[in-house]
Amino acid sequence: xxxxxxxxxxxxxxxxxxxxxxxxxxxxxxxxxxxxxxxxxxxxxxxxxxxxxxxxxxxxxxxxxxxxxxxxxxxxxxxxxxxxxxxxxxxxxxxxxxxxxxxxxxxxxxxxxxxxxxxxxxxxxxxxxxxxxxxxxxxxxxxxxxxxxxxxxxxxxxxxxxxxxxxxxxxxxxxxxxxxxxxxxxxxxxxxxxxxxxxxxxxxxxxxxxxxxxxxxxxxxxxxxxxxxxxxxxxxxxxxxxxxxxxxxxxxxxxxxxxxxxxxxxxxxxxxxxxxxxxxxxxxxxxxxxxxxxxxxxxxxxxxxxxxxxxxxxxxxxxxxxxxxxxxxxxxxxxxxxxxxxxxxxxxxxxxxxxxxxxx
Length: 360
Ligand code: NAD
Ligand code: ZN
Hints:
Layout: E1 11-14, H1 22-26, E2 37-42, H2 49-52, E3 61-65, H3 74-88, E4 93-98, H4 100-112, E5 124-125, E6 134-139, E7 151-155, E8 160-164, E9 172-175, H5 185-203, H6 210-227, H7 236-254, H8 260-272, H9 276-284, H10 288-291, H11 293-304, H12 319-330, H13 333-340, H14 344-347, H15 350-359
Parallel strand pairs: 1-9, 2-3, 2-4, 4-6, 5-8, 6-9
Antiparallel strand pairs: 7-8
Nicotinamide-adenine-dinucleotide is lined by residues 42, 44, 67-68, 71-72, 98-102, 104, 140-141, 143-146, 149, 151-153, 179-180, 182-183, 187, 191, 194, 275-277.
């Protein structure tokens, strides 16, 4: 067995108001390369207080990126890379402020400014040839674990798959719980559930181990307080907890793996553009036979926040769409391997996967 040798996040600044330290954090890195920073900010913040307080210097670039529609694409990264390099050359660093999609765009851009050709060439494990530039993640919504993972998930012409290598991981993360206070409740719920599902899937497969368990147990405990506890809901105390739950869930996953729910979710996102957290909820809702009590607990959380998920969606899907989703899902061999062990291929056929979609 080959054990993961994880290159963790370089530095973590955590706490309410820590965003205000971003300027001093960036300072020592500012002279590298062509001496400018690129800020990638979720366009929700355009014109808001946070945008006015960005620690920008005159030579820096800022892009407000629409984080609300499609998930990041390889073509988007290639265009952004070409534009930055042709305008000002190699940046000193890239700073991403937003949700999982902005985290992934930031990680991918940091790698692609030093690696030639299209990002499509690097979708997979350890395909990146050179380290990227310094990059910083400032999450503004919690749950994906993208702030700590070693992958930058991108949809390309043929697949949804991450640029995954040790250089993908952020050099610096700033975790300021105040930044997630403005997330709309539905989105807060769906992205938060991503963490809960990460921990459940991490724990129910052959790669689970004491490291994954230590972080995963703590993350699930925090999720229960945030989504089911006496003081459940969006409030400052829970913002602090959810931010850590997301980080710990990501760390649990790093040493283990996701499973059936994420494989199905990737198919939904690829074919219909369904957003990651929501797609996970759609799939997890129907996986009682795989994840048992955890699905019951998930239903309690749905009820607590009056979140209703659509039923009988599959009735509106064509056979071709269902097959297309199953094709995406079956390629995620590492997830099926984790969920069902080395003999997974005896069980997991296209038909088996299509039947999961037909339940939805
Ligand atoms: P997101 O980035 O998709 O953003 C969701 C919505 O929330 C957007 O409309 C955004 O504008 C809004 N938003 C973000 N912060 C806000 C704030 N503070 N106030 C108000 N609105 C705010 O959200 P996500 O669920 O964090 O990320 C999903 C993406 O993450 C997908 O692209 C998925 O592929 C990726 N992902 C990556 C990893 C990884 O390990 N790299 C893991 C899981 C998911
Ligand atoms: Zn996820």
